[in-house]
Amino acid sequence: MTIILLAGALICGILLSAQSSVNGAFSREAGTFESTFLTLLTGAMFLLIAVLFFGKGDIAGVLDAPKWQLSAVWFGVGFLFLTIFAVPKIGVIAASISTVVGQLGAGIVIDHFGFFGGAQITFDWQRGLAIVLMLIALRLIYVGNRKSQTAKDG
Amino acid sequence: MLIHIDNSRNKDVIKLMTKIWVYVLALLAGVSLSIEGAIYGVLGESIGKLETSFYNFAVGSVIIGVILLFFGKGKLSYSKRAPKWQLSGGILGVIYLTLLVYGIPYLGVGLTMISVIAGQMAMSMVIEHNGWLGSAKIKVTKEKMMAVALMFAALLLVF
Questions:
Q1: What's the number of domains chain B is made of?
Q2: Which spans are transmembrane here (chain A) (predicted)?
């Protein structure tokens, strides 16, 4: 089960990367908010169909869910605005590397304390080493991007 | 020569210091993503996975729709002329978020994010290397290959 879910998370990353290229191409002509709006709206359409025919949960449960759980959508919107703000000032690469660092750090902290009622997974040396490896990897990506940048400009 | 290097170093440091708060905001963008994932993982357990994903897209499009009405400067009408593949962002986002809502309660936020990032970086490299999906062609470098290898090593370590 775990290995399937892990593969699923990898696929998530692959889809996310494809999505940012697709939306990037669309937003160059249509605008950033327009591109985000279209993504969310068409997504909601697909999911409405999916929920009606395959939903096993309780959609009306949204009305009873605690408000702090519903506030997750604002974190998504917040991510969008912070990104739109940061990218022109520090560049796409620096912004995405900072984002990834924040994402990883927060992920490990949330797991360790079991914040938001999720499973608690204690921080151990494997997780510490994994973070170090990820940071080295990000540094290498930064260096690699600089190299291909100068190769392109030169 | 030495003075010249020192000067540019200093300039770099000053540039970084004045921009440090932008980096902090970008960091917070990432923190937001993890918090969002953690909460949706919990919501998915109570109201259902597809339902949670639907909630995000429905309410998200209402919020962005309002913003668009007041602050939109672009052309939504481009969606009629755009090549069809450029409209696939929605379905990609749906599969992404739904898989995330399934995965997080079992894997935890940390491991989920490590695999998402590893998948993302590897795919971005493939897309850029081949110039797919309208991206500029950027060759894969040795450093980037090593980076992806390290990310998968991190993944195996935590798994």
A1: 1
A2: 37-55, 67-87, 93-116, 128-145
Asked if residue A147 has pLDDT above 90, the reply is: no
Provide φ and ψ at A114, rounded to 5°. 65, 35
Structural domain harbouring B137: 2-158
Six-digit token string for B95: 């599969």
Minimum-distance CB partner of A41 among B32, B61, B113: B61
CB contact under 8 A, A118 and B78: no
Q: Which residue of B has its CA nearest to A130?
A: B154
In whole angstroms, what is the distance from residue A116 CA to residue B148 CA?
A: 31
3-class secondary-structure state, position B46: helix
Interface pTM (ipTM) of the complex?
0.92
Mark out the alpha helices in chain A (DSSP H runs): 2-30, 32-54, 61-64, 67-70, 72-90, 92-113, 125-153
Nearest to B117 by CA among B66, B74, B158, B76: B158
**CB-nearest partner of A54 from B50, B78, B133:** B50
For residue A15, the chain B residue with the least C-alpha distance is: B92
Longest CA pairwise span in chain B (Å): 65
Residues of chain B with pLDDT under 50: 1
Q: Does B101 touch chain A (CB under 8 A)?
A: no
Q: Where are the domains of chain A?
A: 91-154
